[in-house]
Structures are given as structure tokens and as C-alpha cells.
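User: I'm preparing a small set of examples for a lab meeting where we compare how different chains pack in three dimensions. I only have the primary sequence for this one, and I'd like the structure in C-alpha cell form so I can line it up with the others. Please keep the answer compact; I'll paste it straight into my notes.
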Amino acid sequence: MKMRKVATIGAAALAMCLLGSTAMAEDVTLEFQQWWGVELPDGALQEICDGFTADTGIKIDLLSNPYADTKTQIAAGAAAGTMADVVGLDGSWVYDFAKQGSIANLTELMDASGYDASQLSDQIKVDGNTYMIPVVNFAYPLYVNTDILAEAGVEEIPTTWTEFFDALEKIKTNTDAMGFAVPLSSEAPNGIQNQVSTWLWASGGAWLEDGKPNMVGNEKAEKVVDFIKDLATNGYISDGAAAMKEQDMVNEFENGRLAFMVDGISHLTTIKNESPDLNFDYAPMPVMDDYDGQRGMDVANWGIGIAENCENKEAAIQFVEYLMSPEVNAKLAQLANAFPGNSKAEPDYSANDPLFLKAFDIFQTGYAINEFTGAPTSEDLMRSFNEQLVLYIDGDTETAADMLAATQEQWEAAFN
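Assistant: Understood. Below is the C-alpha cell output for the 416-residue chain.
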């Protein structure tokens, strides 16, 4: 697929006009804090930023650190009013930052610059206004260690829950590997969205209805909670789940000790580089035995926002629009092994790993979903769910319905 060639946006004269007479574009430097530069090929993000500087004269000071460090630094900057001008955002942070007034209203900035927002594949809104734009999107397929399946005598990758349980029993009986992992550390509770909720979404279910918690009397939700407990009770998941974080799960898979995991396609290149002898495949999430509808697929994204304390918002929105232009966005998607955030972008995936193309095919057959993106106090929602799920798995809560009722009561306080 050829990339669409588009006119370069943001010529120097336009930049000077947007910035006004009080500042020359050449005198403007924007700090851009994110974790993307660490995960992209060395120098790739700097090269993209250099292209913007060449077009506009506006300099970009990249502040690149791993995800966890970036999250801590951006949160500290939000509290102190010292956030970098442009920031990479996780969708789970948006509601809190918007309510704090620490990130800018992008709807107003895009309207002021005349940007055509219809080309964006998604916008993350709070109270009807956009505060984050997904730059690239990462799907979360099922990773499958094909050598473990072969050793266990599993001939086909499971497509239903019953087939999945049968495969896990064979793995437990015939190999030294673990079948699946469910990271349930309350310190980093995103396992609730990526390794628990994904089972619900794959079978067309949801935790919310009309934007509000809908767990009480939710039959599919109860089935998923019981499903996760059954995995633990039968010894099919990795030991120490209550203390496990997602990176621990990835390490187990990379080292050939885990048959299945749910993880983002962003780790594809890393896993292949660090474990070149590992034979693995991608597959759609297995669904409830009686489900024949379209599969929901868990997604995460690299989002972008502008700090409210940014002194050059006109330059900042110009930089955001540059990253979201079809040509640049396509390049970012290619480099990140991700799907573009601009609906008009045409990435050339011909050089991508065949597994990436398979994930893209899986993605296109279903629909993208992540109910935690843009939700209020998103991480706290995951944490409260996590805590109630661990209580149920440990036998301190009697039924899945009781567990979900307790979770809903906690969630409603955040949504009201």
C-alpha cells in the first residue's frame, strides 16, 4: 500500500502568523514529554520532530523516558502546573487531568486553527470537549506459544472458552509451562482492562451502559468473573497473580514459560529481538461458547495533549496537527507497529512482520473497545475492580454477583 502524499502543513510564514507578532517561530521551543521515543527505533521520533522544525522553525525538545517514569513525571507536572508543553497521554489519565484543568481544551484550539477534526479516527472527550487525540492505536490480540501447544498435544488454537479450558488442561498435564497469566497487582491494575475485561469485550459484553456502571444483573459480566476464578482454581494461571504486573507476564512469555497471554502488538518487535528462537502466533480472543457476534478487541493508544500551562498553545496545536497529518501519522504508525489515528493515513505495512499483518486482519474483523479510556478516575476503577476480584478468587466473597455489586457501588461514586 502506498502512502498518500500530502502538502506539508505549517510553513514558516503560517507559523509566524499563528504565533502572532510577539514571537518569531524561530524563538519558540516546545517541550514534548512522552514514552514513545523509548519504544520507537533509535532516533525515529527525533527525525520526525526535526521535520517539523525544518518546516516551521519551531524547535522541539524531546523528553523521552519509559512509560512508568513518564506517567510519574507528567502527573507531578500536572499537580505543580509545570507540565511540558505537549505531552503523551494514556487514555486512563485524561478525565483526571481535564477535571484538574491541567490539560488544554483541544476542541477550542482546533477550532481556532481551522483544523478539520473529521479526519481523526477518535477523540477522547470530557464534558463534550476533546482533551486527547489518539495518535496511534495498539490492538491486544492473544499471543500463543505454538511450541508449548504442540508439546501439550493441542492441535488447534482455541476459539471458544471450552476449547481454551481443554487446551489449558492439556498444558497443565503434559508440560512444565503455565497456561495463562492474569496480572492482578493493585499497584499497577491495568491487568483488569487488558487481561480480564478483554474476555468480556470479545463476546460483545460491557461493564457500562449509557456511560454508567452496569454490573448488577449483567449475565455476561458474571460469566467472565467466574471464568477468571475458574482459571485460578484449576491452576491454569501463573503463580503469584496478586503481585504480578504486565511486564512480569511478558517476561514469562518471552522466556517460553507461558502458553497464552493477552498483550499489545507494541511488544511484537521487542519479543522477537529479545527471544529470536521463540515460536509464537497471534489469534483472536476465544469467546463464550454460544456467542457468534462480532468480537470486541481491546485497544490502547499513544494519545497526545497540550498542557494548560503551555505559553505557546498556537505552536503546540500546530505540532499536534503535524503529527496527525496523513503522511506523518502513517509514518508513525509504521514505525510503532500500530494502526494510525488519522483515518486518511495510508501506512505502508509491506515491510512489517507477518504477525503484525495478522493482528491487523484480526482487528479489522471486529471492533475496537476500551471502556476505561476517558473514564473518570480510570486507574482507581481498575484498582477497585482488581481488589474485589482478588477477594472473590480467594473465597472471601461468595458469588460473582456479590463481587460485581460491590464493585459497582465503588464505581458509581466516581461516575456521579
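A couple of notes for your slides: Residues 378-393 form the longest helix (16 residues). Residues 1-23 have pLDDT under 50 and may be disordered.

User: Perfect, thanks.
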